[in-house]
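Input/output pair, single chain:
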Amino acid sequence: MTLDTLAAPASHEIEVKHSRFLARAAPVADPDAAMAWLDSVSVPDATHNCWAWRIGDAYRSSDDGEPAGTAGRPILAAIDGQGFDQVVVVVTRWYGGIKLGAGGLVRAYGGAAAECLRQAPRSPLVEYASVHLHAPFEDLGAVHAALDGFEAQKLEEAFDATGARFELRLPADRVEALRVHLRDASRDRIRFEDA
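Output:
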């Protein structure tokens, strides 16, 4: 399953029994960035700033004073349910005078977060791999010609007496296709090497 991150920060506001819930989400690369973003957007005079983030296998959430399990976990469930990774979401609540109960809080926090993410612009997360290969001089053109077609970025090119060694970065799901393409284009003269 391919996961997405956010292409840009997003927000969504709802009102439930006079309480205002403002969900805001942003893409983040690591836990430190998630916590820094939360510090920058939390509203000090709001009743609660409940949040969650997921970055790969790492995740955290906070109910920020709401009953345990009624805010942070539903926000995290919204992130996972919408197929996101490398995302942080905070739902800020301004209390409106009517208690919502545990079920109402779960629905309000989870619903605000889910709708915010549902409407947000998505950007697919691509897993990248680095490959090393050696190409004889007569096959250098085949390597350069294949770069764009396989979304490969040349990180390094170093010449030796028989050709050039390359370090390429490309989407992991394109590595095998590149290997087959270069094998066929060079009559198996281009050799992939361990890093």
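Residues 101-119 form the longest helix (19 residues). The mean pLDDT is 92.
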